[in-house]
Specification:
- The chain is 77% helix and 0% strand.
- By secondary structure, it is mostly helical.
- The protein has one domain.
- The protein starts with a helix and ends in a 19-residue tail after the last helix.
């Protein structure tokens, strides 16, 4: 009889511990996952930031590159230059 009481007491105690600590454990796992996601986002943004800073340095220190970018992206031309744009023909069906 004493053995049954001990087993029942142990099961009740284990059940109470499970009920008390499981929500906290689940929340901790959720926060760890969120932390991993945020760390991955930080690494991605650091890479992008490095690339942007390198582009900025190149634009500030390389006049040939600056001219290339201005011509390609902004359509800037020198005085007296004429730009010809080739427009592809539409395909007939």
């Amino acid at each position: 009889m004493l053995k049954i009481v001990r087993q029942t007491s142990f099961l009740v105690f284990a059940g109470i511990l499970l009920v008390l600590f499981f929500p906290g454990y689940a929340k901790m796992q959720e926060l760890r996952q969120k932390n991993r996601e945020l760390e991955a986002t930080i690494k991605k943004l650091e890479k992008e930031n490095l690339a942007i800073n390198q582009e900025k340095e190149r634009l500030e220190n390389d006049p040939d590159y600056l001219e290339k970018v201005a011509r390609e992206k902004l359509g800037i031309v020198r005085k007296g230059e004429v730009i010809y744009r080739v427009v592809p023909e539409e395909k007939k069906k």
